[in-house]
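Field log, afternoon session.

UNIT: design team B
ACTIVITY: writing a sequence onto a fixed backbone
BACKBONE:
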């Protein structure tokens, strides 16, 4: 049984995240999309809302037979991965600029849990500039984000931020 976790903030879920899930799921039997419950940040969506959106959108993702699950966690990703029985942590890399941060996290997680490998996947080129932060900023300022986030997420964002135009 090959089980992985795909940890992140998912505030909100983007099509870039879905692209990584689509690419990585067929490599595993089970994957837990793990939503960080980080009370130090000021998220747009509560952890419950983020999990709800994932649960609404994930059934439409072709996982190649991999069983997807959504869970929230707090504390260390490495601890959550171990407690979940995962042997891999999936992370997406969009551009070289992601690499340094991701490398540091991967090496630290490996030091904490030597049995668990981080698996990097390259995001599709069309999502190489898509981040949750950028999506929130563009949406807030009235820009178009269609095609970059799931329609359902955009609807939920509309209830949080009145667009300026
Ligand atoms: O989607 P993000 O915000 O890029 O995800 C970052 C995340 C959640 C993977 C990272 O912040 C994390 O692992 N946080 C949990 C705390 C932790 O384990 N910190 C040490 C990382 S080596």
């Amino acid at each position: 049984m090959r089980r992985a976790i795909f940890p992140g903030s998912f505030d909100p879920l983007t099509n870039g995240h879905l692209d990584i899930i689509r690419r990585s799921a067929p490599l595993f039997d089970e994957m837990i999309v793990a939503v960080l419950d980080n009370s130090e940040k000021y998220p747009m969506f509560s952890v419950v809302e983020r999990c709800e959106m994932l649960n609404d959108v994930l059934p439409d993702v072709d996982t190649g037979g991999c069983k997807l699950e959504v869970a929230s966690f707090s504390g260390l990703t490495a601890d959550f991965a171990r407690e979940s029985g995962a042997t891999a942590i999936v992370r997406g890399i969009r551009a070289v600029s992601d690499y340094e941060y991701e490398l540091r996290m991967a090496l630290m997680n490996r030091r904490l849990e030597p049995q668990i490998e981080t698996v990097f996947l390259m995001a599709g080129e069309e999502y190489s500039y898509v981040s949750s932060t950028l999506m929130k900023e563009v949406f807030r300022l009235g820009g178009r984000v269609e095609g970059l986030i799931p329609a359902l997420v955009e609807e939920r964002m509309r209830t949080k931020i009145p667009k300026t135009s």
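LOG NOTE: The pocket of 4'-phosphopantetheine is lined by residues 7-9, 36, 76-77, 105, 108-109 (CB under 6 Å).
NEXT ACTIVITY: expression trials, pending approval
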